[in-house]
Amino acid sequence: MTAPAEPGAGPRADGGSLFEREHLPASSEGRRYRWFRVIFHHDAPDERNFDLALILVILASVAVVLLDSMPSVKVRWHAWLYAAEWLFTLAFAVEYGVRLWVVKRPLRYAFSFFGIIDLLAILPTFLSLLFPATASFTVIRALRLLRVFRVLKLVEYSSEAGVLIQALVRSRRKILVFIAALLTIVVVFGALMYVVEGPDNGFTSIPAGMYWAIVTVGTVGFGDIAPATPFGRFVTSLLIVIGYSIIAVPTGIYTAELARSLQPRRRQARCGSCGLDDHEADAWHCRKCGAALAREPR
């Protein structure tokens, strides 16, 4: 027996979007419900226009932050850019307040993914009054562009991202073992280079040697710390070879787990004729001898 629909929500062929199942309107009529429809729905022309306008405003606000970080632009236009940034921030703050006002459970929305993103979009500007350096963090509001997935009806593709995340979760132990082994190599080689090269060649401590080992095993090679002795160069060459040897290990682990996830589901229905017990989930006959398989209980 299904639960009754939320009053005023209206019937939906798809049973409601993911967002609507989590956040319901605070009112089923009046101005409050109309604003809920405009902000959280994407079907009617005014609802889509609001979404598109919001995306354009987000892009403009991010562009303002980027331009204000350029010295040549900041010298001439800082006052205008600063005013525009506050204008955008106040607009986002009002929009955030309206979102809390129109939902049935404001705290639930405030602690949801999009609710936290909306809050982070306005906090840096206010914090810049006390800590000026935090003004640059307003670019985090670019994350609000993730709403374009809802506007373009792409939310159903989130299940594909779930496959990737599940494969990563299932391979976490193997990856953690790999990381532990890699950290052990970094510590050993960092300490070795600290002993071999010493402070005169830039290896002032074991942590400095570990930093060099991480850069080397990652095949980046910044060159800010480099060995000078023949034995140190031999150790460096050895570590580079190790780096190339293991750099594909986590990728291989994840790819194998992902390939396993994409395989069709199997069932352990043993064939009564030949005894084969590995068949696809929708198989009715044995793939080896063709005998009928026993039906699984529903």
Keywords:
298 residues; mainly alpha; Four Helix Bundle (Hemerythrin (Met), subunit A); Helix Hairpins; 3 domains; two-stranded antiparallel ribbon; 13 helices; flat; transmembrane helix
Description:
With 298 residues, the chain is mainly alpha-helical. It has 13 helices and 2 strands. It has a two-stranded antiparallel sheet with strand order 1-2.
What proportion of the residues form beta strands (DSSP E)? Answer: under 5%
Number of strands: 2
CATH-assigned homologous superfamily of the largest domain = Voltage-gated potassium channels. Chain C
Low-confidence stretches are 1-21
The number of domains is 3
Fold-level CATH name of the largest domain? Four Helix Bundle (Hemerythrin (Met), subunit A)
Give, in order, the helices and strands.
HHHHHHHHHHHHHEE
Choose one word for the global shape: flat
The CATH architecture assignment of the largest domain turns out to be: Up-down Bundle
InterPro entries: Ion_trans_dom (IPR005821), VG_K_chnl (IPR028325), Volt_channel_dom_sf (IPR027359)
Protein name: Voltage-gated potassium channel
Subcellular location: Membrane
Transmembrane segments: 50-67, 79-98, 110-140, 175-196, 202-222, 234-256
